[in-house]
Sequence to fold (211 residues):
Amino acid sequence: MTISGRAFDAVLSDLDGVIRFYDMAELEQSERAAGLAVGSTAEIAFAPETDLPLMRGEITKDQWTEAIARGLADRVPHERGRELATTLAEAKFRADDVVVGMLRQARAAGLPVLLVTNATPWLADDLALLGLTGPTGLVDDVISSADLGIVKPDRRIYEVAAERAGVVPARCLFVDDRQENVDAAAALGMTGLLYREHADLRAVLEPALRT
Fold:
């Protein structure tokens, strides 16, 4: 389906760094208490060798936290590493109400809104806590790397997203906070938006909402 006058007919949005943001204050306090530099736990947790198996749905949360603890073993005792890893895995998060509001407007205007995210196997639980799914939720569908076993920027995850949105890739807006993911979407003909602040998303959505 193509809606006349619009540059795109579906919105594909990343989750973390666009819609969801984490509160790392507790973890940072725990790292300082353990004599670690702030960010040390995340550096291990999100290194490709630790993170990618989780994002592909190949390991559980417990296996992930154990891998983080092993990665910290040369700096803190194993049990302390497990505590830090668990604090990271259980970190509180929130949805950005401004972004959610803009995406709700897009959906109300007839644009399908889909999440396309490199995600953990427990994504569904997180989305329910955020209120983004269900009858009163934000999105029409969720494309999760953990479900597909494919992570962005692999072109296949974008192709699946466009297919589920019911439009060709060239009629999709793709929003992400990572340049390589936006570049991959653009290579398929999507309108790519590198997200940094509310104004970025507003500038690309408002013309579509006026049409």
User: Anything to note?
Assistant: The chain has a mean pLDDT of 95. The two ends are 15 Å apart (CA to CA). The chain is about 50% helix and 15% strand. Strands lie at 10-13, 20-22, 93-95, 113-117, 141-144, 172-176, 191-194.
